[in-house]
């Protein structure tokens, strides 16, 4: 029997059409004190119904399912209100799947062959509002979704100031401009000005690209 979720536990919904994999994963998660499996789904349609009913914190979503693939589910979840975040579980080696999953709102990508510790770390980070992308696919995602970060002269990569590095780290952790301003004791307009400069230096066009770039280049920790 699944354990009863505690007040502070991370509520997880596991979605995969392969019964052995799904149930084995649930057992691994239930062994963690801070994680509770609140439901299982075998299809995309079942997943959508359970998300509305159970309101999990994190959905572990298989990309390849017979009735409706994970990308389709992500598209529908993206239009709903609520704090549910999605980690895509995949065995795919097609970088187009990774990129499209991120574009449709996935907060994390974990390869099915990854070590359990990596998945658990990903669940905890995504629950806290951060992004988590397996390092083995991060390079492919960044390459496909961002442009090279080259300084205006065409030479070395642009250098961020200490303040810009702080802002990049906070963006990667999911904080919005107003929250960043409060944390750094600066105005929201100053945050926007810094972001404009950061985008220009790194050759990215939005916060998603910035977060991906930061994860790949290990800029997600403040100096």
Task: Tell me what you see in this structure.
By secondary structure, this protein is α/β, with parallel strands linked by helices. α3 links the parallel β3 and β4. It has a 6-stranded parallel β-sheet, sandwiched between helices. The chain folds into 2 domains: 135 residues, 3-Layer(aba) Sandwich (Rossmann fold), CATH 3.40.50; 70 residues, Orthogonal Bundle (Arc Repressor Mutant, subunit A). It is globular and about 50 Å long. The protein contains 10 helices and 6 strands; from the N terminus they run βαβαβαβαβαβααααα. It starts with 9 loop residues before the first strand and ends in a 7-residue tail after the last helix.
- Overall pLDDT level: 84
- First-residue to last-residue Cα separation: 45 Å
> Looking at the structure, what is the overall shape?
globular
Text of the CATH class of the largest domain: Alpha Beta
Major sheet description: 6 strands, parallel
| The CATH fourth-level homologous superfamily of the largest domain | Response regulator
